[in-house]
């Protein structure tokens, strides 16, 4: 009788119950309800080469700090005080390293996903990228994980399993991943027992084919060219170009989805990989491999500059090698150096500039109103390198 009643209830349930359960779990984990995806194909294959938009913004490493992430996006005029997209048709790039060093990693991933949907509905775009910390975590390398980061994933796993239990009440509703922890040890010698559940949850979520790796990280780009700017977390060598930038994106995406084993592709490992390279990021320009940079850019049709994160720039966003290499990681996360947020802006016909928080001092430069970004101080210089512009955010 009980089975009969259950079948009757399941038969009468709306077809979208599975989506309701997903929304319930999402809200429980992130506090966010997601807007309906305006794209009929919810998981399109991202393009490696994208035409130049009228306005392009790049944001550096976020490392688990949601507050600083919002500050940077607000500084760029991409979100309002409520955290909703106000960037219109602008294209924004987040250069990778959302994970590690902080306790808001999942909340940032969910938040950026929501902004992607809002941007798309407004005719804009938000592109997220893989950094070395996304690759490390997918491989189970948790050297830079914090206690709060483990707690966040432990709570996620609890809600995820509650959602699976809800779905399993009705046969045929969906075939949930009932064994989230399959193949994962229950203990880790040498590590305090209080961290074991968080570690297990993090492995389950981020391993190739895991729910978070598949849902979020697999949608990231690893390299992308937008107009005449090439974006990458670490750097690109001519060998990477020969291998194929589109091929790099496809293979990392497939690996994140669990289709290529547990170890990341070779071009994503080691000091000369696209996510680890520091040849163009040394503090002193004379130590940068400007010849190698020039060779790589020459091999990419239409490429004028390379924009990268990964290496903290103590003096803020800057350019070297004739501004052919622009470094945008300012260590803004409190888990890094708690740097003041800065963002890079490229406006069609107006060149490249740096937006940073306005300091409380006078300036002899002309003030100009910026759409959605407060008051900017400075001039736009066509075809120049990154010019410093202060913004009251």
From TrEMBL:
A GO term, aspect molecular function: hydrolase activity
Q: Which CDD domains match?
A: MPP_Shelphs (cd07425)
The chain's coiled-coil residues are none
Instruction: Give the domain of life.
Output: Eukaryota
Q: Which residues form the signal peptide?
A: none
Q: What is a single Pfam family found in this protein's UniProt entry?
A: Metallophos
Residues of the Calcineurin-like phosphoesterase domain: 55-164
InterPro entries, per database record: Calcineurin-like_PHP, Metallo-depent_PP-like, MPP_Shelphs
Do you know which PANTHER family this protein is assigned to?
SHEWANELLA-LIKE PROTEIN PHOSPHATASE 2
Protein's name in the database = Calcineurin-like phosphoesterase domain-containing protein
